[in-house]
Rhodanese domain-containing protein (Haloferax profundi), 122 residues
Amino acid sequence: MAKIRPDELDARLDDDTGPFVLDIRPEDHYRRGAIDGSHNVPVYDDVRSGDEDTLRRHLDDIPRDRDIVVVCKMGIVAKRATNILQSEGYDATTLAGGMSGWRGYQNGSVGYKLRSLFWRLF
């Protein structure tokens, strides 16, 4: 499973050809805080429960000519969504640690620094 670390995503967001960030969390979570420029397709609960068709119904909202980075709360459900997108021919990856990892990166937390070291080693 392809993953991208928050620091790697942040560096790519500054690029004009940066990835399409697909936030699958529920809309109310997305409104409370999201990655700048991300797009919300609130299918988290459906994908979590095994309903892949809900995400597939939104494929027209997701560009095929860009890399896709899928975001959820911790990255676990985003992995499932990433697998669905890859099976549909998308170049999709999961944000390691999800929004929790992103916030840790943004805040420079010790927890993030330890997770980042782990991600780099393994």
Notes: The first strand starts at residue 3 and ends at 4. The mean pLDDT is 91.
